[in-house]
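agent> fetching stored inputs for the fe (ii) ion docking request
agent> found them:
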Amino acid sequence: MATDVISLIKEDHRDVESLFERLKAMPENRPALLAELAAKFVAHSEGEEDEVYPVLAKRRPEEKEEVHHGAEEHHEAEEMISRLLETDPDGPEFDTLLRELVEAVTHHVEEEENDILPALEKALPFEERVQLGKAFSKRKAEVLAAPLKPRSRTKDELAHQAKERGIEGASAMTKDELAAAVKRKKQERG
Ligand SMILES: [Fe+2]
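agent> prediction call returned; pasting tokens
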């Protein structure tokens, strides 16, 4: 039985959740688990952004905003992964950063499974989803074979997040100021 892109994506989600559990439960194995998580997360995200999201946005223009939001969340999570990679796995900061990452990724996975994947299922017949699954897997393999490069949010993405959160004066802010304002707003809301 062929596997379609939706099953492949969900399988990756369960894999990341299991890595989160192991990261929490096995502090002594954190370096290897974090390296595995970083490589898999970036490959999965790039696979989605390069192969899956554009197909959905084309077939269902009403999903464009959701797809854009999904990519933004990938880049934000990759920023958190970069910070974790630079943090002492035995120090207290690691636990805080890991908690923030788990929260952000759990939220993203929920949105994807509740909105993006059902929309994809409606937009594409099974055969096309199988083909898309192949393209997704191929792109992931390419990213996995290349040196790890977690991305970060672009200035446009930060400006978009600032606007969504009702931050005033965003258009006059620099990239760093935008990042700081978005972070403050998030902390205010807890
Ligand atoms: Fe995603």
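agent> quick read of the result: Residues 153-190 form one domain.
agent> awaiting further instructions
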